[in-house]
Amino acid sequence: MTEREVDQALVERAQAGDRRAFDLLVLKYQQKIAALIGRYLRDSAEVLDVTQDAFLKAYRALPGFRGESAFYTWIYRIAINTVKNHMVAQSRRPPGDDVEAELAEQMEMGARLRDSATPEREALSDEIANTVQEALDALPDDLRAAIMFREIDGMSYEEIAMAMECPIGTVRSRIFRAREAIDKRLRPLLEA
Amino acid sequence: MTTATPDHWHLTALLDGEPGPGGFEVAISALEQDATLRARFERGLLIGQVLRGETSTPAARTISARVSAALATEPVPMRPARRQRVPASINRPAAALAIAASLVAVAVLVGPGLLSGPAMESPGMARNIAQQGTAEPAGSDDAQADAQVVERWTMEEPAGSTALDALLVDHRERASASGLTGFIPYAAVVGQSGLR
């Protein structure tokens, strides 16, 4: 089951009336969509409001989603339209066009759209990033390699097993333990 | 380190998009019911984002709760049920068969009374026709009938006359064999008549 298939299964559950399945989709993509909208808007409260609005619009439009594209692609488009409409309603001109925004998302080169982080937001983001990096550095080599293969290189369990010359079960275990170790350090920061 | 439960294992597999057979259902059910597990799932997503160098927005962690609260008062937008189409290859013969069966049933119940004509002709008439068309000898039991004078029309074309004779013989054979009158003895199953 690929990530897209997992999303599609959640979408189908939500379409059948399972609202908690949609909650999981929100949970999964709230960071990405908020980051996307944060490239258009400076005010963090406004970012949260528009992100919430985008998800609500997606929920209402969910019966029409036929799975011809990935769920993320679909919600991404809704988010772009939502933030643009929001800016027009606020008598502000939306910057650039969709292609520009997509390039910014995909290539991390949207400098013009990205300077919206407040000092507080940047500080917390930096703290999270530093915590994760420190936890990663403290991991044994085999755990660090496994989680990096998975999260950074996007390799499957099978590919990692071949690269590390070990059974898939071992890969699964290493990734699990690596996440646990990082989570242990990250949790107090997020719960504070 | 936290004690790992089966749900935790399913969760990490779900995060990696590799839940395995049955793992998806287990993980989703666990996530839907356990808030602690949901928080763990969310942190797992965040860890992946940070490792990939993607922008993280800490305040965005509140969005799922906000959306959930906003949706609590909304009706569920159900997907309209698709009309299930029966393939034409299945549908048409079934309909044709049903219609044919209905017609036969009506004909059996109503037809004989309404449609039967007067008992035609004597056996001798057909026999005479047969004699003309096929030159078959008449049986001795039918001597009286043989003696009757049978009037019939004449046709210009010999081929047409022969065909008509054959039809009349066929008619007599069917009518006398089945004991039925009217059109019933001639009823043929639709679709088979073309094969003759």
Provide a quick synopsis of the model:
With 192 residues, chain A is mainly alpha-helical.
Please tell me about this protein's structure.
The complex is a heterodimer of chains A (192) and B (196). Chain A is built from 10 helices and no strands. Chain A is an all-alpha fold. Chain A folds into 2 domains: 3-114, Orthogonal Bundle (Rna Polymerase Sigma Factor, Chain: A), CATH 1.10.1740; 120-191, Arc Repressor Mutant, subunit A (Orthogonal Bundle), CATH 1.10.10. In chain A, helix 1 (3-15) packs across helix 2 and helix 2 (19-37) packs across helix 3. Chain A starts with a helix and ends with a helix. Chain B is an all-alpha fold. In chain B, 58% of the residues lie in helices and 0% in strands. The longest helix of chain B is centred in the middle third of the chain and has 28 residues, at 88-115. The chains are: A mainly alpha (192), B mainly alpha (196). Chains A and B meet through helix 1, helix 2, helix 3, helix 7 and helix 8 of A and helix 1, helix 2, helix 3 and helix 4 of B.
Helix content of chain A: over 70%
Tell me the domain tally of chain A: 2
Distance between the termini of chain B: 85 Å
Q: Report how far apart the termini of chain A are.
A: 35 Å
Major pleated sheet of chain A = none
Taken in chain order, the helices and strands of chain B follow as: HHHHHHHH
- Tally of DSSP β-strands of chain A: 0
Tell me how many strands of chain B there are: 0
Features:
heterodimer; A: about 190 residues; mainly alpha; Rna Polymerase Sigma Factor, Chain: A; Arc Repressor Mutant, subunit A; 2 domains; about 75% helix; globular; B: about 200 residues; rod-shaped; transmembrane helix (chain B); Anti-sigma_E_RseA_N (chain B); Anti-sigma-E_RseA-like (chain B); sigma factor antagonist activity (chain B)
